[in-house]
From TrEMBL:
It holds the Pfam family adh_short. This is SDR family oxidoreductase. Transmembrane segments: none annotated. Belongs to the short-chain dehydrogenases/reductases (SDR) family. Keywords: Oxidoreductase. It comes from Mycolicibacterium madagascariense. The keyword Oxidoreductase applies.
Amino acid sequence: MTASGNSQPVAVVTGASSGIGEATAKTLAALGFHVVCVARRQDRIAALAAEIGGTAIVADVTDGAAVEALADGLTRVDVLVNNAGGAKGTQTVADADLDDWRWMWETNVLGTLRVTRALLPKLIASGNGLIVTVTSIAAFEVYDGGAGYTSAKHAQAALHQTLRGELLGLPVRLTEIAPGMVETEFSVVRFGGDQDRADALYRGMTPLVAADVAEVIGFVASRPPHVNLDQIVIRPRDQATATRKFTRPESD
Ligand SMILES: NC(=O)c1ccc[n+]([C@@H]2O[C@H](COP(=O)([O-])OP(=O)(O)OC[C@H]3O[C@@H](n4cnc5c(N)ncnc54)[C@H](OP(=O)(O)O)[C@@H]3O)[C@@H](O)[C@H]2O)c1
């Protein structure tokens, strides 16, 4: 790719076609990174890459060959943001849908593993690599109807935190970003496309927006090389835990 041949640092953002990933790609581009925007929806990442002067690479993080091709196409990687992921369904454990569980584990856990492993040599070779993994408060809390997602996010966080120790002595920093409620396409995806149900979740409270999280990732990426922000939890003021939020009464 063109940008890897020059001196501009390169950031790879997975799940850049919407929400936190899209906002993060914009933030990192504004900070001077050449951003490689990765997702499955080609039209969206192509438009984003054109807007921010980056590169769009279509890759499904659940597809090993696609992830290898992504890595092979890059000669330089300074920052990796493992953001692709999400939730499907709200079934109890008793009624668990195995396909939904497989989707969540494949995307959040094994997707993060595949992309991280494929890009790790280049992150180390950069001399000042950074891996940001977007987990969730679901990485350290559980709630009824959430086991498929909370177990996947717990596992994704364990993978990320293990790497922190395994890479000691190498020039790579690792930051886990654990957001609470952020209004993106997340809930629409979780509820199978039911926009009304997603809207109802945020009614009467003020959730985070994607840019709130992206700004924090930008702060992380602009610290000096010896400073490692290990874990950052970011929630709306209206949310205390995964199950406790403040809801204002309807005014009309
Ligand atoms: N929103 C929240 O409340 C919240 C809270 C805590 C943590 N998070 C986490 O934040 C991350 C981003 O979510 P979001 O809120 O921004 O949701 P979103 O708007 O639904 O974005 C999810 C992104 O992941 C990408 N993606 C999904 N499956 C993929 C796959 N197999 N391969 C490549 N890309 C894939 C999607 O792109 P394509 O569909 O185009 O592939 C999309 O760009 C997720 O890891 C999520 O678990 C979200």
